[in-house]
Amino acid sequence: MIQVGDQLPDVTLQEYSEVEGNGCSIGPNPVKVREAAKGKTIALFALPGAFTPTCSAKHVPGYVEKFDELKKAGVDEIWCVSVNDAFVMGAWAREQKSAGKVRMLGDGSADFARATGLTLDLTARGMGVRSNRYSMLVKDGKVASLNVEGPGKFEVSDAGTMLSQVKA
């Protein structure tokens, strides 16, 4: 499992952009994790799936709500990573009104989840291999703090915990 001090995995996530601009075409665009994290402070959180109850009601809304505070505390970007394709993540971003606040990044083949060692096997529930619920503060591509939730829990990966770690 990835640990504090480790570099983020050298994998590619996908991001759906609805509006063309800043060199991004409409549709899924590759996000090379190490390259995208270079020189930035990132509040990254991962969760089992888009449109799922806790993720939609608490996890993403908390980061959207605390966006201004996180930015003021020194966070350059907020990333939400889930084992879903970029189209699903784009639709979820619309529903969550996260544009300009949280980058919704699809890990369609669970490459990032596997590379971090933070997978969750939900095959018995018909969802396949997913990401565990966690958050991490990333500075210049390295993990500065890591908050992994226990099974079925939502206690340490929330935006409030991340904000306190950024301020520390």
TrEMBL record:
It catalyses: a hydroperoxide + 2 glutathione = an alcohol + glutathione disulfide + H2O. Keywords: Antioxidant, Oxidoreductase, Peroxidase, Redox-active center. InterPro entries: PRX5-like (IPR037944), Redoxin (IPR013740), Thioredoxin-like_sf (IPR036249), Thioredoxin_domain (IPR013766). It comes from the Bacteria. Residues 2-168 form the Thioredoxin domain. Its EC number is 1.11.1.27. It is an enzyme of class 1 (oxidoreductase). The keyword Magnesium does not apply. Thiol-specific peroxidase that catalyzes the reduction of hydrogen peroxide and organic hydroperoxides to water and alcohols, respectively. Plays a role in cell protection against oxidative stress by detoxifying peroxides. Belongs to the peroxiredoxin family. Prx5 subfamily. This is Glutathione-dependent peroxiredoxin. It comes from Ramlibacter alkalitolerans. The lineage of its organism: Bacteria, Pseudomonadati, Pseudomonadota, Betaproteobacteria, Burkholderiales.
